[in-house]
Amino acid sequence: MKSKGINVLSLFDGMSCGQIALNRLGIKISKYYASEIDKAPIKVTQHNYPETIQVGDVTKLKGEDLPQIDLLIGGSPCFTGENLVMTSNGYVPIKEIKVGDMVLTHQNRYRKVLQIGGEKKETIIIKSQGSTKIETTKNHPFYCFEENNQDFKFTWKNIGEFKKEDKVVSINWGITKDLENFSDIDLYIMGRFLADGCCWKTKRKNRKDSYIYKFKISVGKHELEDFKNKVDDRFSYIEERTVFNAFIYKKEWVELGENFGHLAHNKFIPNFILDLPVERLKIFLQGYMDGDGHIRKQASKVNIYKRNTTVSEKLALTLSLAIQKCYNGVSIYHTKRKDKHIIENRVVNQKDSYEVSYSEYEPKFSKYKSFKSYTTYNLTKSISFKESGINNVYNIEVEEDNSYIVNNLIVHNCQGFSFAGKKLNFEDPRSILFFEFVRLLDECKPKYFLLENVKMKKEWQDVISNLLGVQPIRINSSKFIAAKRDRLYWTNIPNITEPIDKEISFDDINSNIDEWIESERIERIAAWKAQQKPLKNATLIGSKSKLPCLIARGYNQYHSGMILITNGEKYRYLTNEEAEMAQGVPVGYTSICTDRERSHMLGNGWTVDVIAHIFSPLKNEL
Fold first, then answer.
1. Stated pTM of the model
2. Is residue 457 scored above 80 in pLDDT?
């Protein structure tokens, strides 16, 4: 080993797990250069290793500015996590998409998600008349409508290369499947419920598995007669101060109502409604607009617009898809509001609102163009292309069609390794982070290197192997620690041995804290917060179990990656200290950050024990 220690360059360094591994092995470090842009892990690294030299954005780093590097390491997308992707189960945040999910493509059909990925990148805002705001990288391909006099074509184009006259493309819902068991009145009631309804069940006292079911629509007193004329006698009515509440006391209607979202800000039109034949979908829309719409004439009296306002982005988007299927293009207008507002001397919470407007007849001078399968829109010039900083970005690869729908707009795979016969090169912006590693490997010419990545298609794996000149080693962290993490490692470090299973389970890292939560409370909190069912979606861990792979969006949040510790009767959350042990990180290493920041960086980090195993031959080599 060098007497003065080695020089290390760590790309996408995170919380510096590579440095932990080297120190654990007693390998002396002369200088440790870390390329990272996320403030929280940088804070953790500098707190634990203050001598670390932070060099910033990898894309701006040059090998010639560094001394001789002995070891190069790194682990190597394009929408921010809150952007919504249309799946067979409706809109889902892209950060929650999983391999195997079915997403809608530009061919108006569902195709399987093959791969997912994420990183931090500089992003811009994109907004059009028919979509809500999207944050994306400049090099992500969008479906583009190009028009030149009488000629036009649809093509893929990086959003940052759109010209002033180019239009983005929205899907016209092309799937048609009727709900034959539902009458026209049923569909009208569903639409009215989406506008002004809610539903719930209440457990009967002293009666096991017995509930009272309530499906409610609030009807203004001046609207009551019109409402009764459009529905049948299935409702019971209770008069309140300003409205009549119309009730159906049937389980099947409550279960149906649950498909439309819980609470106003979570409402949406489910896919089985969007699938309806046009004439039947119009009946549903009429019910919705009777409850929550209004009509506005233009000053010129040429066009008549119907409008609706909602606090749910998903509802604004799915309502727009329904309108595009039945009529024409739409306009979605977003209003940013303060968190608090005073009404009748009461302080109330308020959320941003979305106004959707449209005409049942194609208006003159419209700024959109309607085609059989698509509607095209201009980009909103006052908002689009504004830089929005450095953010977590996500990307997915989709089977066959290589496309998906984000906030109503059609986008292409940002295909870092999906090349269909094309040779990858350093200029391919879609693969920029991996190729930054390749570039710096060439510029720095270190004696040893290590690249970590997730399992992937063989063709992607072969591309990396050919460029790095080595085949990957596959190691599951479960052989070293109490959590699973199956990864590929490309390295030229010699004499790496097959790891021996240490047979560590959660019992070995269990902190045994007495902070149990009753299962009914977990379900109740989850329903209130995000309409999730954690006891069905979460991974339940007993004392002898292995933890699943920790993920970057957190292990104690209400989503499918949630982890709950159970003794068979009660449940609790995985602690950050247990997560640190599950990644081989010293307990308390990340404690200077918030719980959210800690779970994010631990989910993104390397398993220290695996990296130490790979580095161990260096004690005799350097």
1. 0.61
2. no
